[in-house]
Specification:
Helix content is 31%, strand content 30%. The protein has 145 residues and is α+β, with helices and mostly antiparallel strands. It has a 7-stranded antiparallel beta sheet. A two-stranded antiparallel sheet has the order 4-5. The protein has a two-stranded antiparallel sheet with strand order 8-9. Strand 8 and strand 9 form a beta hairpin.
Amino acid sequence: MERSQTSPDEFIASLPDDVRADIAALDQRISKVMKGEERVLWEGRFWGGSEQRIIGYGAFTQTGRSGKKVEWFVAGLAAQKNYITVFVTAVEDGVYLVERYADRLGKVKVGRSTVSFKDLAQVDLKALLELVARARKLTRKLPSG
């Protein structure tokens, strides 16, 4: 995936009516937690080969399994086919933060670094935003590069 020339606001405006309001509301809340950090749309092939458009908040450099250094976002927000997904790849003490917060996030589907839900009513926003804030704090401690 790469940074896009399309702004996050243009992306949100292009979304279908049934998801636009929830994405806009969540974008506003995540942006507040990530105030002062980069907010950019990422586009391209994602893990598993699917085409994605993800609003990324913050940035850090991590070393992948191959040893290659990659730039990535601290938190990401996507409108997928059947779900809204929040991506948080931060790890604390060897455990993905999403896994640590799983039981507090509400009626959601949790992966190692993803939280997916059909609409905002299913997620505990306080816990989700606390998760994003914790990820921001942890990634600030990482050495760049």
